[in-house]
Design a protein that fits this description.
With 581 residues, the chain is α/β, with parallel strands linked by helices. It contains 16 helices and 23 strands. The longest helix is centred in the C-terminal third of the chain and has 28 residues.
Length: 581
């Protein structure tokens, strides 16, 4: 068990959050990074214990055209500022990983400048891919070279060159020695050479115990990257797409199918494949913007914090802010925010209150970090599963419908379960619990320690439920939760439509009794409709992946968008994605 097994990440795009200029003048350092020091206590308060921050190092514009890997971007401050920031995070129990942009550099990087000056005589002429001194480009360099994503601003490094590998490995050692960081997120990992990543992993194994490597990967078989020889984790874009479209389309089959497929990649073992889960980041629209029914913010985040994987929250989304992709800019996804405007958010903002509650539940319930996954109930609009660890079974229920829904679910041999969000207590009868899942909401059900014949042996100290109501305050305690302070009660944001007074009822006696429509031997018209809906979802996910890659590297024209959206052929889209390698 490593620190990242229990991590809840907070993702910061620092040039945006601090309001730095869009272009770097390379003038005297502006100490904007220091303005993020107050955010550390906020991050801790909402239940995060790790920060992914980047890009940080000297660059021309958006940060991914690095010009100096060993110098904090002048718009953010000095190396001493970064050392202080990481130290303060560690003082408050928060680990820190940085962005590693090791696929390409900017044109102001020293090696490229030397090629411009000395051409064929430069000792760095082989540091980049396909440098051709018979060619030219729009900068009139008198030579051409391979770029990343079609933009000559991003010069692609020759990762097969031992000198390049040695330099990047030295950069990692420098970051650990100078700033004491705890891991690196590898930008564009899905196009990095595997031997290159293996070299980085070897250094990671040397520099610091449990040094974590996470890679940006859009689509594909994640086990190609996540293994003992390369990376510890990758970005889970498969689940990201399923989480928002599964709610917008009222299609929990898409989410459940995605989870089972990813879980099986790791051999159906909790420790097999721990992916970096998210609902938004600096490259995609804010989840609150994407959701057609804003009340689905609740079940979406309950799933983010309880499904297998490592949850990550993008800065500002805990406040429920909007962020829509613009045609030629991602600025709206990366806004400057003042923490002073959210001083009492944990108490007054229902979205922040939810996130804080989920963060605390995640950190105090080991089953959500280490437990296996078993699907318990599945319809288009309702979904239940359990996370089982060390004799404790935590049950998660979500409902994307505008009406309440009653579920009968298999339970542990205990007297009762308690809702970690609401404090509601339900008794166990005949091996089941019967729970009413509120419209457009959900709950995390923790078994309560009571007088039963076979109490599970727990390593943790049982405490009261995370957010108990007055009626739920008893001397009994949920099993499998670590001791911590109790946060403010959570009141859910109101759904867009009022809940209907009646509730649907579905009974499930055991996991074996659950049969989804896709598992039936004879396909019905409804089965076919579900299958077609899932296929449409896969196509949409691939199209989004292609646009994300394009938009990350420069303006995307209307014609480019039309070309992507007009392609509805799975194999063709896969080939298109591979063409970016």
């Amino acid at each position: 068990m490593a620190w990242y097994d229990e991590a809840v990440f907070y993702h910061i795009y620092p040039l945006g959050l601090t309001g730095a200029p869009k272009e770097n003048s390379y003038a005297q350092p502006e100490h904007r990074l220091n303005t993020l020091i107050p955010w550390i206590s906020h991050i801790k308060e909402i239940g995060c214990n790790a920060i992914y921050i980047g890009p940080l190092f000297e660059s021309v514009g958006h940060g991914y055209e690095t010009t100096d890997y060993k110098k904090l971007d002048s718009r953010l401050g000095t190396n001493e500022d970064l050392t202080h920031f990481v130290s303060e995070c560690h003082n408050q129990g928060i680990l820190v990983i940085l962005d590693g942009v090791f696929n390409h550099t900017g044109r102001d990087f020293f090696a490229f400048r030397d090629i411009q000056k000395n051409r064929e005589n430069s000792p760095y002429k082989d540091w980049y891919c396909n440098v051709n001194f018979w060619g030219n480009n729009e900068y009139n360099d008198g030579f051409s070279y391979e770029n990343w994503g079609g933009y000559n601003l991003l010069v692609k490094l020759n990762q097969h060159n031992p000198a390049v590998r040695d330099y990047i490995c030295d950069v990692i050692r420098f970051w650990v020695h100078e700033f004491q960081i705890d891991g690196i997120r590898l930008d564009a990992a899905d196009v990095l050479d595997f031997q290159y990543m293996q070299s980085i992993r070897q250094v990671a194994n040397e520099v610091k115990p449990d040094f974590w490597l996470m890679g940006e990967v859009i689509h594909g078989d994640y086990t190609r990257w996540v293994n003992e020889g390369t990376l510890h984790s990758v970005t889970n874009y498969h689940l990201h797409k399923a989480l928002y479209s599964g709610h917008n389309d009222h299609n929990y089959f898409e989410i459940a199918h995605t989870v089972k497929r990813l879980y099986s990649m790791g051999g159906n073992r909790p420790d097999g494949l721990k992916l970096y889960n998210f609902v938004d980041n600096h490259d995609v629209e804010r989840i609150y913007t994407k959701l057609q029914n804003k009340a689905h913010f609740i079940p979406v985040h309950i799933l983010l914090y309880t499904l297998p994987g490592i949850p990550s929250l993008y800065y500002g989304s805990e406040f429920g802010i909007e962020g829509r992709k613009e045609r030629y800019s991602d600025d709206s996804l990366r806004p400057a925010l003042s923490l002073e405007n959210y001083t009492n958010a944990v108490k007054d903002n229902p979205f922040t209150r939810l996130i804080a509650a989920l963060g605390r539940i995640r950190q105090t319930t080991p089953a959500l970090s280490y437990g296996d996954y078993q699907e318990l109930l599945l319809t288009n609009r309702q979904y239940a599963f359990s996370r089982n660890f060390n004799g404790t079974s935590v049950v998660v229920t979500v409902n994307n419908d505008d009406s309440d829904f009653i579920m009968t679910l298999p339970a542990m041999n205990v007297r009762a379960y308690m809702g970690a969000l609401t404090g509601e207590k339900v008794s166990v009868g005949n091996g089941n619990i019967v729970v009413n899942v509120k419209a457009n909401s959900g709950e995390i059900w923790i078994p309560v320690l009571g007088e039963q014949k076979n109490e599970p042996a727990m390593d943790t100290v049982p405490v009261e439920t995370v957010i108990p109501t007055e009626a739920a305050r008893t001397e009994e305690s949920p099993v499998g939760m670590k001791e911590d302070k109790e946060p403010e009660a959570f009141e859910a944001p109101k759904p867009e439509k009022p809940a209907e007074p009646t509730a649907a009822i579905q009974t499930v006696n055991s996991p074996e009794a659950i049969k989804t429509a896709a598992q039936k031997e004879t396909a019905t018209p409804e089965d076919q409709e579900m299958a077609e809906a899932f296929e449409r979802g896969k196509i949409a996910g691939l199209q989004e992946a292609i646009l994300a890659i394009m938009e990350k590297n420069g303006p995307v024209t209307d014609q480019m968008c039309r070309d992507v959206m007009d392609n509805v052929y799975h194999d063709s889209l896969i080939t298109w994605i591979k063409s970016f390698r």
